[in-house]
């Protein structure tokens, strides 16, 4: 990859038509044109850039607001230097060309091209991603969507049970679990619960390997005094739950399949391109190293690999802490200094890093002590977890750089040696 670009193009993308502006190294406009979205339109876009410059694709730098999508993939596949910029930065660059706040597609395409020419360091150079990473990212996002759908459906079950059958809510906190749905189907109303046998409940619990509650306890809960409701309420609510339960069973199966796919893709990433350099120890893959960290489970691992693959590849700690929202924002002017939580970040990474730190303080002594120190200073729970996550990201980058797995006794051994 080379940074020797002699022509610069800006693309203001849209759902149907993409506006393109092409300038040379001196800022002179060579041409501008709109292209329809689609295979033929994007092919024409690439052909137009090559014909207007009579140069190779590697000599043309292209700026666009999004770092992903079919336009980016087409440009990367054809060999163009492709750069992405945050829309907020583009808004600031636009002020150079108009102080009145005028905005249109042609102007934005020109601003993108000229800003890339003069301030290329503000843009992020994009590269073609590994096919496994792309697939992992999609399954990771599908898993999150499915989990959100599961929560929505569980809340609907909770609402209907509250109407006529509140004692059933005390059986389990997870109303979307398959075993609870089967148990509810066996006793959908207080009247059915009064006639159900304990052996039936025991069979359901045994089939799903539920040991935290016994059949006798379930029976005692379900047979508590029932609410007095209007005629037809129990039947209507039961019909509603029955319809929602069918969707919940499907979502549960899809979540199980998504988890299986995440595990398989992470395993394939761990095995891919494994090299054995000279020396006594084989190189450890990034997946294996990240998995060894305390608090990193299936979802956190998949999210880190899918959403932060480039910073992880570069071992860029500062990019990771900024992208995940761990790095605070400082506003200083004269004697006034305000430090606040970073809002401009990758929300999926923020959630993953938050839960990573939350689980780490339960299993890692050093993380637990760091959390306690932050809380002792008067920081909130969220701020303390961000402090823990900051350390974990630094440790992860150091481990990846040295290709060493996490050793919980490493710090203690160094302190004893000193």
Helix/strand structural class:
alpha/beta
Shape verdict: globular
Total of DSSP H or I helical runs spanning 4+ residues: 18
Provide the gyration radius in Å.
Answer: 28 Å
Poorly predicted spans: 275-283
- Run of helices and strands: EEEHEHEHHEHHHHHHHHHHEEHHHH
| DSSP E strands, number | 8
Q: Approximately how much beta-strand content do the residues carry?
A: 5-15%
**Average pLDDT reading:** 91
Biggest sheet: strands side by side, in what order?
3-2-1-4-5-6
Q: Summarize the main sheet.
A: 6 strands, mixed
How many angstroms does the end-to-end distance come to?
46 Å
Helix content: 55-70%
Any overview of this molecule?
It contains 18 helices and eight strands. It has helices spanning 39-53, 70-78, 87-94, 105-118, 131-164, 178-186, 190-195, 198-207, 215-222, 233-271, 286-291, 298-307, 309-314, 317-323, 347-363, 365-376, 381-402, 410-417, and strands at 7-12, 17-24, 29-36, 60-64, 81-84, 124-125, 329-333, 336-340. Helix 8 (198-207) crosses helix 9.
Compose a concise summary of this entry:
The protein has 418 residues and is of the alpha/beta class. It is built from 18 helices and 8 strands. Helix content is 57%, strand content 10%.
List the helices and strands and how they pair.
Layout: E1 7-12, E2 17-24, E3 29-36, H1 39-53, E4 60-64, H2 70-78, E5 81-84, H3 87-94, H4 105-118, E6 124-125, H5 131-164, H6 178-186, H7 190-195, H8 198-207, H9 215-222, H10 233-271, H11 286-291, H12 298-307, H13 309-314, H14 317-323, E7 329-333, E8 336-340, H15 347-363, H16 365-376, H17 381-402, H18 410-417
Parallel strand pairs: 1-4, 4-5
Antiparallel strand pairs: 1-2, 2-3, 5-6, 7-8
Helix pairs in contact: 5-10, 5-12, 6-8, 8-9, 10-12, 12-15, 15-16, 15-17, 16-17
């Amino acid at each position: 990859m080379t940074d020797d670009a002699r022509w610069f193009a800006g693309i203001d993308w849209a759902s149907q038509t993409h506006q393109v502006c092409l300038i040379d190294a001196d800022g002179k406009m060579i041409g501008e044109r709109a292209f329809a979205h689609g295979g033929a339109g994007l092919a024409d876009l690439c052909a137009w850039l090559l014909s207007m410059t009579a140069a190779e694709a590697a000599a043309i730098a292209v700026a666009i607001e999004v770092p992903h999508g079919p336009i980016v993939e087409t440009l990367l596949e054809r060999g163009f230097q492709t750069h992405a910029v945050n829309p907020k930065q583009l808004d600031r660059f636009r002020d150079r060309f108009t102080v009145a706040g005028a905005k249109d597609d042609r102007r934005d395409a020109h601003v993108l091209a000229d800003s890339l020419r003069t301030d290329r360091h503000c843009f992020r150079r994009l590269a073609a991603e590994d096919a496994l990473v792309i697939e992992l990212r999609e399954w990771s996002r599908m898993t999150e969507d499915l989990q959100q759908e599961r929560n929505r459906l569980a809340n609907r079950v909770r609402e209907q049970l509250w109407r006529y059958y509140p004692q059933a809510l005390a059986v389990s906190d997870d109303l979307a679990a398959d075993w609870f749905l089967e148990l509810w189907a066996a006793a959908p109303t207080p009247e059915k619960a009064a006639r159900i046998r304990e052996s039936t409940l025991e069979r359901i619990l045994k089939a799903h390997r539920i040991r935290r509650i016994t059949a006798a306890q379930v029976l005692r809960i379900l047979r508590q005094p029932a609410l007095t409701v209007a005629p037809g309420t129990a039947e209507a609510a039961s019909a509603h739950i029955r319809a929602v339960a069918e969707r919940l069973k499907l979502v549960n199966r899809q979540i199980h399949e998504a988890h299986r796919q995440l595990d398989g893709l992470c395993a394939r990433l761990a095995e891919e391109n494994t090299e054995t350099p000279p020396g006594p120890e084989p190189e450890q893959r990034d997946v294996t190293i990240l998995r060894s960290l305390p608090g990193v489970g299936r979802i956190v691992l998949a999210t880190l690999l899918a959403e932060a693959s480039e910073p992880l590849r570069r071992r860029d700690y500062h990019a990771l802490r900024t992208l995940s929202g761990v790095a605070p924002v400082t506003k200083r002017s004269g004697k006034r200094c305000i430090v606040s939580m970073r809002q401009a970040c990758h929300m999926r990474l923020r959630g993953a890093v938050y839960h990573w730190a939350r689980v780490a303080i339960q299993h890692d002594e050093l993380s637990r002590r760091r959390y306690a120190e932050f809380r002792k200073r008067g920081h909130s729970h969220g701020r303390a977890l961000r402090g823990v996550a900051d350390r974990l990201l630094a440790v992860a980058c150091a481990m990846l750089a040295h290709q060493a797995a996490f050793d919980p006794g490493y710090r203690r051994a160094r302190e004893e040696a000193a």
